[in-house]
Every structure is written in structure tokens, then in C-alpha cells.
Amino acid sequence: QVRLVESGGGLVQAGGSLRLSCAASGSIDSINTMGWYRQGPGKERELVARINSEGSTNYADSVKGRFTISRDNAKNTYLQMNSLKLDDTGVYYCRALDILWRPYWGQGTQVTVSS
Fold first, then answer.
1. Adjacent-strand bridge partners of 92
2. pLDDT at 110
3. What whole-number distance in Å separates Cα of residue 22 and Cα of residue 72?
């Protein structure tokens, strides 16, 4: 089992920055890919960014050039969000996939971008 706890969300003005953190615990050696997803008001949950065990990354087109995903040796993952826009508002979830491709989700952290 893998447990994920997100932190770092909050209220920020458009154009500002936030850094989200996801702390992993439990069977962290089994983690392969980690990612960030978000769900905006009235929207479906969508992929924001992900990073695999080799460090390869993928980003949603809407955040390319503004967001950066990273991870450390302890399998924690981070999402640096710059130049935030109103459309970035939502609940951000951390997800881990283990070597058997089983997903684990955090409880989410709210990000609100104001004008």
C-alpha cells in the first residue's frame, strides 16, 4: 500500500506561483510513475503532469511552460506552478502507480486563483 498526502494549495492571484508537494509513504519502493491531476469546478479530473522512475515527464498542453513536476529519491513529488491563471483553479490530486500499475490517490489540495 502507498499513502499520499498533498500540501501547498491555497489562494493566489492570477500571475502568481504555488508549489505543491506530495509526500509518499508505505511501499514507496513499488512506485513507478507519479503524477498530478486536477478537477476544476464542473469539470472532469484531468492529467496535469506526470513523471516516471527514469525522470521522463509529460504535461498537459494547458500548463506547458508554466508548471514543472519533479520528484526526489524518497519518491515525494512536487509541482511548481508559475504564471497561474483563473482556469488553473481546482482540487489538485497526487497519484502514484506502482509496478503493477495499481493507482493510489491522495486526498487532494485546493488551489484557487483569483483575479
1. 38, 109
2. 98
3. 11
Amino acid identity of residue 36, one-letter, is W
What are the tens digits of pLDDT across the range 34-73? 999 999 999 999 999 999 989 999 999 999 999 999 998 7
Q: What is the DSSP code string of 61-73? A: GGGTTTEEEEE-T
Look-up of cell digits 503493477: 100
Instruction: State the alpha helices, DSSP H only, in the chain.
Output: none
67-71 contacts at long range (C-beta below 8 A, 24 or more positions apart): 69/35, 69/36, 71/34
Q: Grid coordinates representing 93?
A: 490530486
Amino acid at 28: I
